[in-house]
Amino acid sequence: MPIEVEVKLKIADLNELEMKLVEKGAILEEIVNQRDQYFNHPSKDFSETDEALRIREDGDRIFLTYKGPKFDPKSKTRIEIDLKVENAQQLSNLLEKLNFEKVAIVSKERRIYLLDGMHFCLDNVASIGTYLEVEKIISDKSFFEKTRKEIFRALKALKLDPKKNIRKSYLELLLEKSDTK
């Protein structure tokens, strides 16, 4: 089962970081606008179980994604299952008919760079700011610590502090901001 090892940092200047990535040889894979529609389960609260279910519209691609609970206190490492679908609205309607509740929509512009087998996602997230997510998908849980260390080394090489890692999802950050208004 695919496991996403992910580290997220708040970034003040994405353009400066982008220049550093390019200097290190990172390759721009794509720039995409993503719209993530999150749902809560009808009989359990995903915010309490640390799970997530979303429909991601990613350019002309659409995915239903389940994210399991984080199992590493130093990163956002978790099981992630993506299913490609054809129609976001029909899927949303289906989930609502099954009593899943729409929670929120997270919209962002994402610039995805590839460097040393890792994806460096420069995100400008509506209402909450700019972030870097460094991600790598692995197939065996026994490799997650090695992969996390690899990501931490890459962050240090960019003069970023892995200890400032944010374990909250964009959804959690958005909901927190909404609660403080």
Beta-strand content: 35-45%
Helix content, binned percent: 25-40%
Structural class given helices, strands, pairing?
alpha+beta
Ranges where pLDDT stays below 50 over 5 or more residues in a row are none
**Ends: how far apart?**
39 Å
What name does CATH use for the topology? Hypothetical Protein Pfu-838710-001
Query: In which order are the strands of the major sheet placed?
Result: 1-5-4-3-2-6-7-8
The CATH architecture can be named as Beta Barrel
Quickly name the level 1 CATH class: Mainly Beta
**Structural domain count:** 1
Subunit organisation of the chains: single chain
Strand runs, count: 8
CATH superfamily: Hypothetical Protein Pfu-838710-001
Radius of gyration (CA) equals 16 Å
Largest sheet data: 8 strands, antiparallel, barrel
Query: How many helices?
Result: 5
What is the arithmetic mean of pLDDT? Answer: 96
Description:
This protein is an alpha+beta fold and 181 residues long. The chain has five helices and eight strands. It has an eight-stranded antiparallel β-barrel with strand order 1-5-4-3-2-6-7-8, surrounded by four helices. The longest helix is centred in the C-terminal third of the chain and has 14 residues.
Summarize the model shown.
The chain has 181 residues and is an alpha+beta fold. It has one domain (3-180): Hypothetical Protein Pfu-838710-001. 27% of the residues lie in helices and 43% in strands.
